[in-house]
Design a protein that fits this description.
Layout (H helix, E strand, L loop, with lengths): L1 H7 L3 H38 L6 H18 L6 H15 L3 E4 L5 E3 L4 E10 L1 H13 L5 E9 L11 E10 L1
Antiparallel strand pairs: 1-3, 2-3, 3-5, 4-5
Length: 173
């Protein structure tokens, strides 16, 4: 009966071709078209976001980290020299070093927002290193920009294996 329908009926060939198209669509074309539509949608979403820099979470984390850095290195400029010198002298004394010199001039960099102060400490190598580490960890005095440890010259009176350390401390106003 099915054989006669397809052979003698004029609708047999169109019905057979439509059935064959449905089978092909189900087997191959349906998944391909779904993948193509998903790809087109993802490309549109990618073009709308324009990269990671506009992600709100990224910007808030970035701003929070920058604010933490600025807060860590910001100091009160009116009391900066007095409190820094006092704290540095106390830390140096605790670790067996002593504060020898503090130059009068404060170096101002850039547009006046960055201050650089220099202090000179004297002591043995390990006490100077301990003092430098404590100064690095000390909040409210800025950050250590540079540390140099040198020997006294041989002609100086107290040159018996004593060292001096120049510390440059940078702070933000």
């Amino acid at each position: 009966m099915i054989k006669r329908f397809f052979i003698y009926n004029k609708l047999g060939l169109p019905v057979l071709s439509i059935a064959l198209m449905l089978i092909c669509y189900q087997l191959a074309l349906k998944k391909t078209l779904e993948a193509w539509q998903a790809h087109r949608q993802l490309v549109l979403q990618q073009n709308e976001t324009a990269g990671l820099s506009t992600e709100p979470g990224y910007l808030t984390r970035k701003n929070l980290n920058l604010n933490r850095l600025i807060a860590a290195y910001r100091v009160d400029t009116l009391n900066f020299r007095n409190t820094a010198i006092t704290q540095i002298a106390l830390i140096a004394q605790q670790h067996g070093a002593k504060l020898v010199a503090v130059p009068v001039n404060t170096l101002v960099l850039g547009d006046g927002q960055v201050l650089v102060n220099q202090v000179r400490l004297e002591g043995d190598f390990f006490s100077l290193l301990k003092t430098a580490q404590k100064l690095y960890e000390l909040p409210g005095t800025g950050f250590l920009r540079s540390v140099s440890i040198k020997k006294f010259d041989a002609y100086q009176a107290n040159a018996k294996s004593r060292l001096y350390m120049d510390v440059y401390i940078t702070a933000l106003q």
